[in-house]
Every structure is written in structure tokens, then in C-alpha cells.
Amino acid sequence: MERPGTMIKKGMRRQIVLHYILVVFVALLLVETTFLLAIRTYYYDSIYTKITTQISAAESMVKYGSLNGTSANQLQGLLELFNLENTELEVLTLKGDIITSSTGFQPDRTITTSDVPEAVGGSTGRWVGRQAGTNESVMAVSKMVRINTHDSYVLRYLSSMEGVNKDLLNLTLLSLAIGVAVLTIVLLLSFGLANSIVRPLNNITAVSAQMAKGKFTTRIKGDYRYEIGELASTLNYMADEIVRSNQIKDDFISSISHELRTPLTSIKGWSETLVSGGYDPEETKLGVGIISRESDRLIGLVEEILDFSKLQQNEMKLSMGQVDIKVLLQETLLNIWAKAEKKRIHLLLECEETIFIKADANRLKQVFLNLVDNAVKFSPEDSSIVLSAERLSGTEMAVTVRDSGIGISEAHLARVRDRFFQVDALNGGTGLGLAISQQIVELHNGKLEMDSELGKGTQVTVILPLDDSQQGNARPSNSPVTS
Predict the structure, then answer these.
(1) Fewest C-beta in 10 Å: which of 277, 294, 306, 452?
(2) Percent of the chain, pLDDT > 90?
(3) 284 lies in a domain?
(4) Is the pTM of this model over 0.85?
């Protein structure tokens, strides 16, 4: 269990608790202030309404009746007619001098509070304050009354507000107690809320620190929800990808070491053999040919790695120009023809008469060579590979390489374009060919799509934008060409 000192230290936990408490405190303050003001207004208005109702009822009786006789009789009649229980009634002159009151006392003083001038002005005056002498909280309501059209008096009601104020004070204390109780509950809940956020983050931070030290086998455990759950899943996925990338890198180093060792061994062996001398021209020619072929193979491997490095660093520059797709595909088939002939594989070219695109011819040829070479590598003897090109719309065209080879499983198809990944490591290579091809196609604002079924073959489609001068042209008829 956490100590109190650690629960309020600087950090997200304290920020969450403080903000939560602040919001609830402000809300409670507004609600309670509004509630207490409304209650106070209700109490005060109720007393005022009760007095004014009594005045209205008594005024009606004065209007339809009469208060005759001497002044003393009139004043006594006013006191009896307008008297209100638990309220002192004073009869004043228009100047505010007290003439008489319902209590029987006739203090020799003049009333100067604001309710008297208001009453003399014709309205019902109201004043709340402290009564002189007793310092008691009172409400005074005054009204001018005319008798027999020539006698006018000011009737002033005094009602004590001490009981009301005491009730209001009790309500205020009760409201404060409720507010404190609510804040206490909110404080406890806010700590729970803060812990539900901070603890998973602390766990994620600790695991992330382990990952930063290279321990990528560690994982964030716990069934977290919402954004925190997404963060945990993302970090776990990142660790899985790093582990996979490291494994692929290790496999690549092992594979490339083997790929480099084989031609280097041949070159070194034939070099030493030729240096020793004593061989006839035919053997010498054979050895030099092997050295040349293995050197070309080494150059190809190094160039592939250099191309991938340039693509990764966005340093590959394209030399764009107008390219005739049919010519480019014919050159591709001629370059791969000898390799296909050894396996008795038939290469077929199907292309429209005229399709021009704006591209880097050498880089695009590199893509098609890689695709056709893969098709030859994984196709059985006496099979066929079809290389076709066609317009898809007024703005795009597609080049398709279709074989009837061993195909690719669904699991491998999702990863075959990843760098260093090899479906069959025994066939050699760096595992960079398709990754480089896809990036080159994307540099041309195109797409590389693959469709394969295990045991039935593979189809790779490269979709590229047409040259501006070709966009919108009518589609010419197909002209199959067999190579």
C-alpha cells in the first residue's frame, strides 16, 4: 500500500486529483451559493408577500368602509384593521414621526429608513437591516393610507428576521457539511481514478525502459482498456517487430555471408590454380570464365545492397524520360532468356502496340528483371511464364508477370515484400529483391500487387501512371508476341 507522502508527490497522479477536486469544488460552490441565495430570497419574499397581502386586504376594507370619529379613534381603527400577528405595526406621519404602534409604545423618534420615503411616494417600501437600539435584524414594509380623503398616514410593519436568519445559517452549515462530505468522497474517488491511469503508465514506462536497454523479450502484461490498452499493444507490437527484424537481420547476415563465400571461394580457388600454371588454354579459359561469372555475381549482390541502402536513406535519384513499355519488356526477356532456356521454360510476351510511360528505364527494367527472375527460379521445367502489359484506364497501365510455379503460401505472401525475407533460403539471394522493386515502383507513383496460390503459381502486377501524352488516348488492339 502506498504511503500518503507518495500519493501526493509531483506527477500525473497529483495533477489528476487536484484538477478533479478543483472542478468539483467550483461546481459545488456555484450550486450551494445559488441554492442558498434562492432559499434566502424565498424566505424574505414570503414574509414580504404575507405583509403586502395583509395590506391589500385591509386597504379594500378602508376603501369600501370608513374610519370616522376623532383622530385617536381613527388610529386605533387602523391598528385593529391592519394588524398582523407576530408583526409590529407602526403608524407614522408622512414625515416619518411615530404616532402610535401595536405594541403600545410611542417612542419620540423619527424613522429615516428608505421604506418610508418610498411609501410616501406612492409605492410599497421595503427595507431590511438592523433596528436602531436593539440591533435586531428586521424587515420593514411601509405603505401610505388615506382616510376620508384628507388624513394620510404611513403604516409600517416590522417583522423580526432573527428566526429566518437562524434557519438560513443552519441550512448554510448543512450545505457546507454536505459539500465537505462530497469533496471527501470525490478525493477518494479521484485517487482511485488517478491510480487506474498512473499505475498502468508506470508499468508501461518500466517495461519501455527495459526495451530501451535491449531486452525486447519483455512484454507489457495486463488487460488495459481504451488509449492505455492501445499504447500497451503498440509497444508490444513494436517489440515483436524489433525481434522479428533482428531475426531477419541475423538470417540476412548468415545468408549474405554464404552468398559471398561461395563466389569468393571459386574465385580464390581458380586464381591460385591459374597462378600455379601448367594448364592448357581450354582449362585456363574455363577458369577465367568462372572467375568472371562469380565476379559478376558478387557485383550484383553488392549493387543490390547499395540500392537498398539508397532507398532506405531516400538518396536514390531517378532519371525520368519517356519509356516504351513493349521495348523495355522485350529487353527484359532477352536478358533472362538464357536462364529460362536451361529449365526449358517458355517466355511469352503479350503487349499492346504502343504504351508510353514517364519513368526511369533502367530502374524499371531492374524491377521487371527481378520479377521474371523470381518466376523462373520458382517455376518447374517445361512450364510457361507470361509477361503482359495493358491499359487499365485513361490514366494507368499494368504490367503482369504470371507463372505456374510452386506459388506462395498465404502466411508468406503477407511478408514476402519485407526486407531480408526469403520464402526459400536454399535458392540463395539477399531477400531484398522484392523490397527494392516495391520501393522503386512507389517512387514512380505506382503500386505492386501480388496474388498467389500454393502449388498453382503466382501473379505479380505492377500498376504505373501513363505518360501525359498517352492519357485519354483510344485503346489499341492487343498484339501478342511470343519470345
Answers:
(1) 277
(2) 16
(3) yes
(4) no
